[in-house]
């Protein structure tokens, strides 16, 4: 049996999108894990250029919801959410069903998604809801500062003598620090990110996505992320949303709710808007590209065994348009 997958990305955070409805019987969780570990490997060991994870699309279990997304990280672990991935799944389901405004089932919420104006020619863009948000240490799986119930803009002395962190789940867990440029590009993010995701540490035993954020100007931030289950990534959509939330909460002198924030990252840029709902709950809009790079087909047995020699691929041509878009960003 052949498996068809689409190589997709949002801000260079790249995935293989796998539609389970192509199979008579869906792949088991063990097979999905093995597939992700195999095909995501970098440096020529995975399928083509590898990936940060696999986005598993399936039928929704809920009424009025167009489809379901599951997220398998490159190391085979399952994440509760993926902001960049959700934009590409929104495009996939929207195109298939001729709908522009609908909901997608994720692990903890049926999230609103919407097609928006292209970022540039052949750079389609989608807006997706990021929620629910909580600062609760138990939900975050966090044991810091003598088991504090929340950490908001506070030092965690065990992690760093200088940096102040905020811990927030959106709903996947994020640890965020606002830093200067030297720290943003320095080794500290890698040190903390690797340590917090080593499976041995007592602070985040289940791991956490760690981001450093530099404020570039009013409503303009740069976010660099070390992702749980992946490592350094070009961009992490939930991290950029969580960072935008902390920017609004901690930097009211230069921003506020309901304002568009320009978020650049090593792979491109997105826009975010932070909202506070009627019940005081926070939620974010994440707006960015949803690029389809190539369509790949190979026998399922070979994909599961890591033999990619029979794979065939059809390029969409969208990657060139995306690269032009990023080049133009740098020139602005
Ligand atoms: N890249 C994603 C987040 C993927 C999940 C993360 N690695 C986790 O384990 O929480 C995004 O765009 O949000």
From TrEMBL:
Q: Which InterPro entries match?
A: DAP_epimerase_AS, DAP_epimerase_DapF
Give, as in the UniProt entry, the pathway in which the protein acts.
Amino-acid biosynthesis; L-lysine biosynthesis via DAP pathway; DL-2,6-diaminopimelate from LL-2,6-diaminopimelate: step 1/1
Looking at the UniProt entry, the stretches that span the membrane are none
Instruction: Identify the keywords attached in UniProt to this record, alphabetized.
Output: Amino-acid biosynthesis, Cytoplasm, Isomerase, Lysine biosynthesis
List of catalytic residues: 82, 236
Listed under GO biological process in this entry are:
lysine biosynthetic process via diaminopimelate
Q: Which reaction does it catalyse?
A: (2S,6S)-2,6-diaminopimelate = meso-2,6-diaminopimelate
Q: Name one GO molecular function term.
A: diaminopimelate epimerase activity
Source domain of life: Bacteria
Q: What is its EC number?
A: 5.1.1.7
SUPFAM superfamilies, per this entry?
Diaminopimelate epimerase-like
Q: List localization entries.
A: Cytoplasm
Record-annotated residues binding substrate?
Answer: 13, 73, 83-84, 172, 209, 227-228, 237-238
What GO cellular component term, any one, is given? cytosol
> Site annotated as Could be important to modulate the pK values of the two catalytic cysteine residues: where?
174, 227
Is Protease set as a keyword in this record? no
Q: Which Pfam families match?
A: DAP_epimerase
Q: Which NCBIfam families does the entry link to?
A: DapF
> What family is this?
Belongs to the diaminopimelate epimerase family.
- Self-association or partners: how does it assemble? Homodimer.
Q: What is this protein called?
A: Diaminopimelate epimerase
Instruction: State the species of origin.
Output: Lactiplantibacillus paraplantarum
Q: From which lineage does this chain's organism come? A: Bacteria, Bacillati, Bacillota, Bacilli, Lactobacillales
């Amino acid at each position: 049996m052949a498996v068809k997958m689409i190589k997709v990305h949002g801000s260079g955070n790249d995935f293989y999108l796998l539609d389970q409805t192509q199979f008579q019987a869906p792949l088991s969780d063990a097979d999905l894990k093995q597939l992700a570990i195999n095909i995501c490997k970098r440096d020529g060991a995975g399928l083509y250029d590898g990936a940060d994870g696999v986005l598993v699309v399936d039928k929704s279990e809920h009424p009025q919801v167009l489809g379901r997304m599951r997220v398998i990280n490159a190391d085979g672990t399952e994440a509760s959410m993926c902001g960049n991935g959700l934009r590409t799944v929104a495009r996939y389901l929207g195109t298939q069903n001729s709908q522009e405004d609908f909901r997608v089932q994720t692990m903890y919420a049926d999230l609103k998604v919407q097609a928006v104006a292209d970022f540039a020619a052949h750079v389609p863009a989608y807006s997706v809801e990021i929620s629910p948000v909580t600062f609760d240490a138990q939900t975050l799986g966090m044991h810091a500062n003598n088991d504090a119930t929340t950490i908001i803009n506070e030092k965690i002395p065990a992690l760093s003598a200088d940096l102040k962190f905020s811990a927030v789940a959106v709903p996947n867990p994020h640890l965020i620090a606002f830093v200067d440029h030297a720290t943003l590009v320095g080794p500290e993010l890698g040190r903390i990110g690797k340590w917090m995701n080593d499976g041995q540490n007592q602070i985040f035993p289940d791991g956490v996505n760690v981001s450093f954020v530099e404020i570039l100007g009013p409503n303009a931030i740069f976010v660099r992320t070390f992702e749980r289950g992946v490592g350094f990534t070009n961009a992490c959509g939930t991290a950029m949303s969580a960072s935008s939330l902390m920017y609004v909460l901690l930097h009211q002198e230069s921003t506020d709710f309901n304002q568009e924030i320009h978020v650049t990252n090593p792979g491109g840029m997105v826009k975010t808007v932070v909202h506070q709902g009627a019940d005081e709950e926070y939620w974010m809009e994440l707006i960015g590209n949803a690029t389809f790079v190539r369509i790949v087909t190979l026998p399922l047995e070979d994909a599961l065994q890591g033999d990619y020699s029979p794979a065939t691929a059809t390029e969409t041509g969208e990657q060139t348009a995306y690269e032009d878009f990023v080049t133009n960003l740098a020139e602005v």
